[in-house]
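Journal club side-thread
Mid-discussion, someone asked how the predicted structure for our own chain would compare to the paper's figures. Pasting it here so we can look after the session.
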Amino acid sequence: MPRTGARGGPQTRARIAEAAAALFLVRGFDEVTVAEVAREAGVSSVTVFKHFPRKEDLFLDRSDEAVDLLRAAVRDRTGDVLGSLRATTLRLVEERHPLSGVDERSLPFFRTVAASPALIARAREIAADLQRTLSEELRDDPGFDGDGPLLAALFLAGYATVTVETARRIVAGEAPTTVVADHRARFEVLFDALTRTGIERRAEGTGSV
């Protein structure tokens, strides 16, 4: 039976996302309608679109959280930006956070995205939006001394490259423990490379997060 509840608020949004993910993972993104998601969540289609203007965002529903993480990495840092981004990235991996690419639902998630051109296209749009967000944060940060647009482009491209390769290996059935260890190691390589570029000029005595 569909569940009922208030039409607004974070609990309703979470319930809609949960219902959508369950349907998409079983039947595939393109085979499920918004009306079916609404019925499963116990709300109207209007309420679904109130929380998720695009169907793709029902599945790729963590873009706002990713934006918040990027902003916090810049605004709340105690050292340099690269050190803060590194700390945030590795913390997500250690926590097996959904945004890390190695959480417990990674396999069905990656399979669902790979099977849907609409989800692939939306994922690329989200990545571009995140790059703009980070670039703007660095532009407006008086404590950052470096090339913000280039750092944002290289960091997001590197993050995507690591995640896509991890997705390929997970879908291929490689051992999770090996994949996760390599996933983390490749992020370390990414940040080592970004540091060596000198893309962020560091004041003497400034340390990493």
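Post-session note: The first helix runs from residue 10 to 27.
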